[in-house]
Amino acid sequence: MKPYKGPPRNQGVASDFVGKKPLYLKPRGAGELVPWEEIAVDAPEVSGKTPLDEAQFVALDVETTGNAPFLVLEIGAERFRLDRTLSFFDTLVDCRAPINPYARKRHHIDRSMLIGAPEFKDARRGFLRFAQGAVLVEHSHDAFDTWLVGRGLESPLEHPIIDTTALARLVLDLPKGQTPGLARLVDELGLDVTPAHAALDDARATAMVFRALIARAQASLGWTTVGEVLAALPRPVIDRTPPSRRGSAAAANQSPGARGRTGPPQSAAPVAPPRATSRARSGRRGRSSRHRRSGSSGSPGGSQA
Questions:
Q1: Quick check: 63 pLDDT over 90?
Q2: DSSP bridge pairs for 75
Q3: Is residue 252 part of a domain?
């Protein structure tokens, strides 16, 4: 992928982050750590009524160890509007767990690259500030990337979340059983970008795919607001309870006073108007069913807080 010259890199939304310990990130290929800086971004709280042309989005991608519990090695993200890129977030993540050889062969991250990188809890802290007030966009049919980022938090992610695989099935009229890879969508949409098995590169490709799909949806479906997109693309419900604990978890859910279902925290997406035109197919239960994503390590991941 060609180097991007323009919007700032590793800067986030100005907030109460000031006062916490300084955060240093380690982008892939950087010779030294980069101080993470916050910048003021005009990002009013997004809602279902927010016009698509006014909303801000954050495309996210992660690379992982490839071994359970799938710890995050790299976080990459692009903050953008439909008409322009705003900024980037890019860092490797310190992780002392073994890296699966197959995953390493795809994303080319080895342990020596992680020396000096921030721990996951600190990298996530910076990312959540970077993504404040935005709609999260991921290329993950089973919502794994955003689940991993939110795993271990005291409260669920509050961002609305859009999956480009479900969006592509609807807009491009693909069979419901298909999970289109990122490289396939880039090719089909004629985009000048190449997914490169690196978090930031794939996040940028995801952002470009999203823009192209939304442009088509605006023309063919008449979508004008964030809520209309969310209504057409319900989130999948995935049970990620370890197999050894599913029996006890099921029993707990059937007991008096049990609330909710097992699995990842669900995004508190804004209520959207009832204009759904299609339902995205929910992913099958369990980690073993996850399809390989083109343009990714093929292994979802996240480090526990």
A1: yes
A2: 62, 91
A3: yes
